[in-house]
Structure formats: structure tokens, C-alpha cells
Amino acid sequence: LQVQVFVDGTWLYYSFFARTTRNCEIRSKLGAYWYRDYKVLWERIPVIVGRAIQEQLQAQQQTDRFVEVYRTTVFSSLRQDTDPESLRMRMFTQMQRLNFDVHLSVTTGLQEKCIDIALAVDMLHYATVPGAYVHFQCDELPHIYRDKDFMPAMLRTREKGKRVGLCSMRNSCNRALLDPAAHTMDFGVIWLDDYFDELFEKQRGRMENSPMPADMLCEMVAGILEKHGSAMSSRLLGRELQ
User: Fold this and answer.
1) Class of residue 113 by CB neighbours under 10 A (exposed 0-12, middle 13-18, buried 19+)
2) Over the stretch 64-110, which tens digit does the pLDDT of each residue have?
3) What percentage of the chain has pLDDT greater than the value 90?
4) What's the CA gap between 159 and 153, in Å, rounded?
5) Rounded to an integer, what distance in angstroms lies between the CA atom of residue 189 and that of residue 213?
6) Longest dimension (CA), the chain
7) DSSP characters over the chain
8) Rounded to two decimals, what is the model's pTM?
9) What is the CA radius of gyration of the chain?
10) From which residue to which does any coiled coil extend (predicted)?
11) How far is CA 117 from CA 56, 98, 166, 167, in A?
12) Contact call for residues 228 and 7 (beta carbons, < 8 A)
């Protein structure tokens, strides 16, 4: 059984690197500045997805069918002046070295990024390609205006005869996707939270060129502002940073 994984790279970055301690399982487990002492093994995500699907098939259908993740496709965007040594840029560079198909659009100002549209179009394109592919989406942006953007694409992909699943994190997954009445999935959700022990690797010493806390704070603020339409009061920003 062949599987293709579609990754919302913007969601993945903010879920790992730009959440406050209050609502971040990674920071709670590894510390506020965990990225200095640990590295993320991005190559483990396709492995986790493939293994989880195989386990679910064994439990549900009593089959030992081998599951192969044959492609991992990532969509995100970057500002033209993004620092090549930033956590965000290094994440995508690492993925490219792992032979993930990384699609990055360059944006300026408040320009619409269209990441959701690009991912949905690609998913539906491959849904028309002959073959028994399973499409796994990883994942959904927790933005109030974009929570359900992928649901029509997931539904239409299933209507094309492809099986669809979701890989997410518990603190940033829209609950509408989990409703059985939505008919968006053929498998149980794969929660990355359950695989932290194999996603992170302890490093010896401090990471070279690791951003200082002030740089991390700037990235966190930028992420919060982006989720709120690039404008919010200082009081609300303070609450988000707590």
C-alpha cells in the first residue's frame, strides 16, 4: 500500500517552534528553549505515519499488508528577507536534504499566501492518478478563518476512491475534522504528541548559530500576529505570550 503525505509546513513550524509555554507540549516536556539542546528528526514523520497506518490496518482488517510512504510533499511560504539561519529556513532546508518535495512561495507584506489552496489542488491532482494511494494530511492550521479549509479537499479525495487520514497535534487540531459526520477520514488520527520520544534527539552541547531568546520571541510574536490577521491589541498579545 503506497501512501503520500501532504504537510502544511506553516502549521508544522508554528506548532513546533512558535507556541507559548502555556499551550505547547514540546516546551512543557523539553524546556522553553529546547531547540538549543534537541533537534527534530523530520525524517521520522513519514515513518511514523506509515507504521501507524499499518498498525491500524492490522487491527481493523487483520491484514499484514506492507505500507510504503513513497512521497512527502511540504507547502509553506517565506518572506523574501527571511534569514537563512532562522529556525524556519533551517527546517525547510533540512527537509529538502531529506528529499521531501518542499514548495515555498515568497511573500511580501500582508500578501495572501495561498498555501491551503496549493496543498488542496495537489492533493486532488494526485487523487486522479491511477493507483491505490492513501493520502495523509499533516496538518490543519488552527486559525479561526482557516480551520476547515482542507475539509472539502479531503472529502473530494475520498470520493475519488482514495483513502485519507490525518496526522496532527492535540492542541492544534480543529475539532470539526474529528466529527465522524464530516466523512473526511478513513483512519484514526495519528497524534504526533504520542511520538515525541522518537521525534526529538538530544544534542551534545549548544547548537552552533542557535537563535538567542530575543530572536525566538520575535518569531513567536510574528506567528501570533499572523494568526490574528497581523493586527491585535497589546493586551491580547500579552495574553497570548503568557
Assistant:
1) middle
2) 888 888 889 999 988 888 888 888 999 999 999 999 999 998 887 65
3) 25
4) 10
5) 34
6) 55
7) -EEEEEEEHHHHHHHHHS--GGG-HHHHHH-TTGGGTEEE-TTHHHHHHHHHHHHHHHHHH------EEEEEEEEEEEETT--TTSHHHHHHHHHHHTT-EEEEEEE-TT----HHHHHHHHHHHHHTSSS-EEEEEE-----TTTTTTTHHHHHHHHHTT-EEEEEE-GGG--GGGG-GGG---SS--EEGGGGHHHHEEE-SSPPTTPPPHHHHHHHHHHHHHHHTTT---HHHHHHHH-
8) 0.78
9) 18
10) none
11) 30, 24, 17, 19
12) no
Indicate the pLDDT class of residue 203, thresholds 50, 70 and 90.
Answer: confident
Quick one: angle between helices 9-17 and 87-97, nearest 10? Answer: 130
Q: Domain residues of the chain, as ranges?
A: 2-241
- The cell for 197 is 520520544
Residues 6 or more apart whose Cβ sits within 8 Å of residue 86: 211, 215, 219
Q: Which residue has the higher pLDDT, 9 or 140?
A: 9
